[in-house]
Design a protein that fits this description.
Number of domains: 2
Helix content: 40-55%
Largest sheet: 9 strands, mixed
Structural class: alpha/beta
Number of helices: 17
Strand order of the largest sheet: 1-2-3-4-5-6-7-8-11
Distance between the termini: 58 Å
CATH topology of the largest domain: Rossmann fold
Radius of gyration: 21 Å
Amino acid sequence: MYNIFDYLEWRGDLSFAQTGICDADAVILSRLSYLPFDGVVSERFDNFTTVSQAADRIFSGEAPSFLWNGDDRLLQALADCERYRNVRLCGYVNEVDDEKQMQFSAMVIDLGGLRFVSFRGTDNTLVGWQEDFNMFFTFPVASQIEAMRYFDRVVSHFDGELCLGGHSKGGNLAVYVSAFSAPEVQDRISAIYSMDGPGFELEHIKDSGFERIIDKIHTYVPQSSIFGMLFEHEESYTVIKSSQKGFLQHDVYSWEIKRDSLVPLSRTTGTSAFFDHTLSQFIEKMTPEERRDFTEAIFNIMKSTEEYTFDDMADKLVRDIPIMLKTFTKLDSETRSMIGARLLSFIKTAGGNISDINPLTKENRQIRREQKTKKYKNKTEKGTAE
């Protein structure tokens, strides 16, 4: 099995001027915004740091905190290869705001005549994951609004061609800002990459410029994708092969590469279909208000530990579990009953789908999308008539 590290060994001696962006590059560029560039890459768009300079600063200082296993290896590999070592970085922002329930990070990668805007996906903070759940009852969420502000700044500062991309929530942000940009800005965008990023509800993008950029969107989901199959993908998407299983397929370092392309498959697995169908059914049983109340209650319990990240919670699980149980018992009876009822509903929904785990083909997903589209149109027409 070959991955992006093998790609760098094979093609790392060729510059972007010699060969343009390929699938493997899009994965790497989308992943770059996850690296710990705080205090290393400037927030300004006119102050550049090369990849090799950034690597020297990070590895020469105190032990850096990388988000995922493999990130340190990626940074070193990029700094060592001709293709990436002199690529310029700027405009790095990393904001986590508990009050706004927002986690947002992005940067601009200058490839020489082409700027790639890379949006970070969800990190390991509790706030970041809470914002993901907020997508089930809020649109736009705080990071989508912030991404639009950030992209407006990018557009006003740089001329010429732009590419956008991101992994997980970052892919969703890349599509969001592209869809809601002005037509003259959309004309400057050559490609948008969503790497296992969730889609959108039809009602949220119907009034955007989504149709103008739909053919520029390149969406990739691993065969057992969970995150990337959330909501709907009106654009076409490519199922790709991962060497991992289940949730671990979200890890881009497990994605298989053949020469410079992601290895395609014909369909997602039954596991992906199971989670996709179960979560859709579970969410549809609740009103937006009920989704909000459930999400806030669950995350308030976790936040009672005063931990900042899930890694912190994992390290102090023996201490934190009693704290969360104590917080739960102090909730009013109505909230406790609501949490219990929702969790039971999810278990029942999952149990009802276990016996019907079938691979989700593009044809089956298209049928479901058409059903949801019809349902949405009927709801809209009914509201108009009233």
